[in-house]
Every structure is written in structure tokens, then in C-alpha cells.
Amino acid sequence: MQFRLMLQRLFHEKLAFVSMIYLLLLVFLSLFASWIVPFDPNEQDLSKVMLPPDGTNWFGTDELGRDVFSRVLMGAQAAIQAGLVAILIPLVIGVPLGIISGYLGGIVDDIFMRIVDAILSFPAILLALGITGALGVSLWNAMIAIGIIFTPQFARLARGQTLQVRREPYVEAAKISGAGPLWIMMKHILPNILSPIIVQASFSFSLAILVEASLSFLGMGAQSPQVSWGGMLQQAYSMIFVNPLMMLFPGIAILISVLAGNFFGDGLRVAFDPKMKRT
Amino acid sequence: MRGHNEPVLEVKNLCSYIPTSRGVIRPVNNISFSIGAGEIVALVGESGSGKSVTALSVMGLNSPSIKYEKESIISFKGANLLKMKKRQMKKIRGNEISMIFQDPMSSLNPLHPIGKQIAEPIQLHQGVSYKKAKKIVLQLLEKVGIPDPENRLNDYPHQLSGGMRQRIMIAMALACNPSLLIADEPTTALDVTIQAQILNVMKELQKDTDISILIITHDLGVVAEMADRVLVMYCGEIVEEGDVYSLFQNPQHPYTKGLLASVPKLRGASEKHLHTIPGTVPNPLELPKGCNFSSRCSFATDKCLSDAPDLIETGKDRRAACWQIVDSQKEEVTVHA
């Protein structure tokens, strides 16, 4: 019921709706990238180096003669993976922590929130570099690092929302029915704080794509032969005076994906907001 | 006649306090009362008189900042609820004692269909699945007068009117056949015709199940309609107690007299202005030294200002706390002697 209403509202936000379609397409492409790509993204052909876009190589080729279109498609895989893992970790760890500390309060709240403050006091990218440095350089570890960076925000958001909801009479009514804290947190608090968390997840998704690209650009993310947009930018960067066109396509891919994530998040926020009722 | 034999709930010397930086507040100060099986008792008083704190003390749901004096006892079927462990208390809440609130608009979770919410206490206390609880839910919906329960089961709270929602709350409260129902201003948020309906539903259910009801209200109409016995509270103390007929006919405490006089009358000699009790409720941090009501009482004497009267027996099932009554009783004694 509510879900349909939300979709309807989302449909009215044209930009958000288009973004949603784009993101779904991106997820689909990344799932089936290995079958869709016209060329093996790592196949080198030194007779076709740094070609401009044409009929066979739609986005041209890079300095080793690899097809850029195929590489952008494969790069979507790394981006989507990073985005999903990076929001999954805070959803699974941060949100429950936030709800628990918001609902129980007291010493539990103090301990959790001080940990959160500690994590927040590090600059995000430095923390990510530190974590990947400690765990070893790979896309997987970069994703975990991004997830850890995002966890405090989700915990704080969930805590703040919980503080509002736990004073609601229906929570009191549940207590009177004999419900314990766990039941109340699962059945009454979580569903009622879910919408801002989903919005936050959508923003974090696009931010994760950006951070993953930055880490890969710095060489701390995806490692060759795995293709990632950030890694492609790094290559293009070294060729910037020879063939500036090379950084166009991965750059655009990052730009559009991040924008789509943000627009979608904005649209969700409007769609979820009961105060912005449309007729 | 309803049986008033063994009390279901017995509150003895209930004394709660909140330590604050500016002094100690006593929301409930040394009150004692009991509720018999199948009895409807009304707790009357204005805002801040300690009605809700009393109710929440029974439920064990007062905020942790409210502490109880050692001698306080809330005995439910022989067990002291104040000494009970959290886990035991959880088993009693919603199962043996349940409660309905003032505002049915916000007492239901907007995200769950009503059927699931009514089933909640059944699931919690009997450990059954929603499917099994559904049968009981349907019966409950019928009992509280919801037409076409089958189709209402999956409605969300926003699809129902205030009266309907209060019926749902009642159904939820009665789901596990509790022996005591606390109704905290159950009709305050409803309009008058719906109020009458809800009160009727509660009365009918009371007759059917012989449940005891503690009804908290400041509406004397509701009291007259529902209650067998009345407790009048003022500033955290019970100032008068009696069965509903004799209390309405012959109020003894000046506060009760004032309350009854303040009810607007439809017929008879109409005064130009509504009768009011002069003054306001004293600040709980600066209660008068003697009788709490002394600052507003037109009969107050020097004694009232210096010493607090005890709640004394004034007749059959009647109690009141006022020096006037104490003095008049003394006179009677001397006359008889």
C-alpha cells in the first residue's frame, strides 16, 4: 500500500525517476557485464592504440589498444559492488547500533556514541587509506573501508530517529502489551525510522562510488586486471598530454552515476516525506 | 450487584518521589485504595494530581526518575508489583493488567495493519503465530463492535475514525483476557456521541468478562456513567473516596464539592457564570504546609493552614481528608456522650 504510494510520488519526480531507471540499468549491466561486453576488456591490441571513438570501438581504445567501452562497462561492476557493500555494512552494523543506543540510552548510548565520534574524527579518505593499508590493497578491502567510514553516519541517523519514535504512544502501547525491548525495536521502531535511512543509503551509495574511484585512482582500490573507473582515470591521467580524450568516458561514467544516486536520494526524500503531499 | 469480595488490586501507602535540583516532588503521596473483582473504580482529579502516575506505577512503566518509598505496596493478586523483576512484570503487562490511553490517534503504529496490532499481545504472551491469533482477533473485533471484522483486519490505522481506533485499542487491551484494565482518560480525545459509544462498549465488556476497571478521568459525566466507586485526587493525595451515588449526592470534601458545583448544568436555576474553584493548583515544589487544598478552600481555618488532615473513615465505604469533617465527627461524639 505505502510502497505503491511512494512509487507514485517518485514517478512525479521526473529526475529521480530517470535516475532510478539509470541505476537499475547500471546494476543490470554490472551483473551481466562479462557477457555483454563486445571485447575482452583486458585484451590488448597494439595495432589499435589510442584510437578515437568509431563504429567498432564506440569509446575508442586506450594506450594498450584495449576497448574503452568494454572497460567502462566492466568498471561499472566495481562501482556497483563498492556502492552496495559500502551501504550494506552500515545498514547491518550502524543501524542496529543506532537503534539500540537511541532506545536504551544511558551508558550503552554513551559508549556507542563515543566510538562513533572517534571514527568520525578521522578524515574519511585517510581512514580509508589506513584501513586498506592495514588489510591489504584490494577492491574488497576498499569496500570494507568505505563501509566502515559510513557506519557512524547511519548509527547517528538511526539513533536520532529512534529518539523521536520511542516517545510515541504506540511504543508505550506495545510496552503495555508486554513487549520487550527487542520486540519493540524490531517491530515498532525499525519500520518507522526506515525511510530516512533508505534516503541516506541512496546518498551513501553514490558517495561510495566516488570514494571507490578515488581509492582506485590512488592505487589503493581495485587492482589490475580488475577494471575500475578510478583505475582508468589513473591511466588516462598519465596519458593526459598524449590523449586527453581517454579520461572523458570513465569520468562521465562516474559523474552520471554519482549524480543519479544523489537525484534518486532527493526524490526518495520527497516521496517519503509525509509533509510534501501531492494531489 | 457486582461482587466486591477479594480485591484484585490493592495499593497501600503508595509514595513516589522525584528528586530534583530544586527539591523533592511527590507526584503521588501516600495513597491507598483497592479494586475488587469486577469493580469499576474511577480516579478523578485535575491535571497534575497524580492520576496517571498512579496508573503507570501499577503498570511498572513510570520513567526511571520516579522513585518509590520503601513502604509502598502495589499488590496484584497477592504479589507486590513494585518488587517484581522486569521479566515477571513483562508477563503481567498486557496479559493480566492492560491499559488504554487517552489518544487513540497516536496509540496505534501507523505502519502495521490493525489485525496484527491486536494480535501482538496474544503473540507475545501465548507464543502463537499470527495465523492462530487471528481467530481471537476476529472475535475481539466483533466484541468491541467493529462491523465486518474480516475485511477490517488489514486496514491501517489511518483508515479508521477516532472512535473505531479506540475500539481497536480496547480490543488490544482485552486480547489476553486481563483481570484489570486501566483506562487513562479513554474518551477525552473523542467527541461526545462517540464517548457514549465507547463507554457503552466498555460497560458491556465489563459485564461479559467481569474484568475490574480503573478508569482515570477528569470528566465527572464519565464517572457517573461508569463507576461503582470514586477516588478523588488532589495534589498527589486521595482527598475523598466513596461509592458513586453517595459521593455525588453528598460530597464531603470541599474540593469534591467545588468540582461537582463546577459542572455546567443544563436545567434548573442557571447562574450567569460557571462556578469555579478559586486559585490554581499549587506548585508541587511549594505545597502548602497544612492541607494542600487550604490555599483555595473557602472553609479553611488556622488548623488547615498548619496541619494536614488524615484520610479518615466518614461512613460506610466513605473516606475523606478534611478538618471540617474531623471536627464535626468530634462534635457528634461529644453530643452522643
TrEMBL record, chain A:
Localization per Swiss-Prot or TrEMBL: Cell membrane
Biological process, per Gene Ontology: transmembrane transport
Transmembrane region(s): 15-37, 78-104, 111-131, 193-220, 240-265
Membrane topology type: Multi-pass membrane protein
Gene Ontology cellular component terms for the protein in this record: plasma membrane
Taxonomic superkingdom: Bacteria
ABC transmembrane type-1 domain: residues covered: 76-260
Record bears the keyword Transport: yes
CDD domains hit by this protein: TM_PBP2
Metal-binding in keyword set: no
Record keywords, A-Z: Cell membrane, Membrane, Transmembrane, Transmembrane helix, Transport
Family of this protein: Belongs to the binding-protein-dependent transport system permease family.
Protein name, UniProt field: Diguanylate cyclase
UniProt source species: Mesobacillus campisalis
TrEMBL record, chain B:
Stated name of the protein: Peptide ABC transporter ATP-binding protein
Membrane topology per record: Peripheral membrane protein
Alphabetized UniProt keyword annotations: ATP-binding, Cell membrane, Membrane, Nucleotide-binding, Transport
First-listed, main subcellular location of the protein, grouped into a coarse class: membrane
Cellular component terms per the entry's GO annotation: plasma membrane
One function term, GO molecular function aspect: ATP binding
Record family assignment: Belongs to the ABC transporter superfamily.
Gene Ontology BP annotations: peptide transport
InterPro entries xrefs: AAA+_ATPase (IPR003593), ABC_Ni/Peptide_Import (IPR050388), ABC_transporter-like_ATP-bd (IPR003439), ABC_transporter-like_CS (IPR017871), Oligopep_ABC_C (IPR013563), P-loop_NTPase (IPR027417)
Origin species: Mesobacillus campisalis
Record's subcellular location: Cell membrane
SUPFAM superfamilies: P-loop containing nucleoside triphosphate hydrolases
Domain ABC transporter positions: 9-260
Superkingdom of this protein's organism: Bacteria
